[in-house]
Amino acid sequence: MHPLSPRLKIITCLALFHISSLSLWTIHNHSLHFQRQPVELLNKAHEYLTGSPRFPVSKNDIGFIFKTGYGNQDKIQAILDTFPNLQNVVLIGDYATRTGTHFKHKDLEIPVYDAIEATLRALPPQRNSTRVRSYEELAAAIAAGDEEVAGSIARAHGWELDIMKWISGLEMGYRLLPNKKWYMLADDDTFIIEASLLKVLSKLNPQKPHYLGKGIGGKHEVNRFAHGGSGIVFSSTALSRILRNPSAAHTASLTGELGDALTTRLALANDVHLEERFSLHFNGERPRTTRIRPDRPCEPIITFHHMSTADTAEFQQKLSGVTSPVSWMDLWTLYEERGLERFITQPFRSDWDHVGVSDRVTEHVETKEDCRRICEKFSLDCLAWTWTAGSQTCHTNPWVVIGNEAVGKVTGVVSRGVKMLRNVSTRSCSRAGSREPVNSQHTEKNRIQDFNYYSSEN
């Protein structure tokens, strides 16, 4: 096992404090339809998503604020290249670019604005803050041109410095991108599917205080927050309300544990509440590790997280020609030539893994057939299984991932699951156009699942 990062240790402590030990998985009566289709058929399949919006919104109505850092300069360029109009983008970080060092896209230069400097300007002098000292050391190394030292500081303290960017970053984005209907804050390795985002926002009034994101955390609202890596969205009304008096949040960023939790506390203090019924549109995984689950087959998926340059290039290629919103079930359509139905007649796929990260492992499983039977015994609580020949272990999950090549493993999706996913999605997707977003009731099971989803990130 990899050692836990400081950020993950904090998340683990917070979650264990709030989460009781109950069953890990929950399955709902919705599902996915996995069928390989040409791009033009995929676009046609989503005509139900492109009906008349109640609140028309265009790409130019959204201000995008990306958090980056000195240690992450290799990530942001790939994300910027996915945006057709960078005039709607603001980059904020723990340093500022200078003339000649700005990021570029075609003929447009995109500077990085120093959000931590802005935070410190809003506060009295901080002589005893370890984060401020780390920032000052980073700034000094950058000014001296010592990239090795600056990189070392950024790697060691970047996650703490990130906490100080959140509130000032929102302030900068709101000021530099005025008159937007919506504002989205995301990480520099967050991929945004704009068509899906527009579809969701077209159902909402930006003059209302809307706050959207992937809700995670504890049992009560005060302990829950929107996961930053999955992207968070504020209506202009919500953001203006939140930023009326951010001084306490600036102070808290000097010692606070999580920037996304800090932002939610500031929102709650200004009577802006996270709307968790929209959580299922926000995703903290890469496309190949995204958990395709039966509770959201036809819902637009807005984000992917932890995207490497290769991940972004691959997904851009898969998305080529697709202009409609992308749903969770479309991921299989985009990535897999092998339809799920094939698992009914050919149940074993060698050297692959459709399970992904799993806490459900059975040891001393001698054959792939035995592993498949273990999954089948879970009834609706198991969709995918993977057997490792060398260790004779069987991993199972109540979801399916696209997955990757995995030499020495055999994987599959149980026949009952394939039939259930195909049949239910055929019925539910035909009605999705008139359906309101699924109201996510956050039971203890869902909170535990959310925590595992969040803490499995690297």
UniProtKB/TrEMBL annotation:
Pathway: Protein modification; protein glycosylation
Membrane topology listed for this record: Single-pass type II membrane protein
Keyword field contains Cell division: no
Gene Ontology cellular-component annotations: membrane
Enzyme nomenclature, EC number: 2.4.1.122
Pfam families listed in its UniProt record: Fringe
Main location: membrane
EC class name: transferase
Signal peptide start and end residues: none
UniProt protein name: N-acetylgalactosaminide beta-1,3-galactosyltransferase
Annotated organism of origin: Hymenoscyphus fraxineus
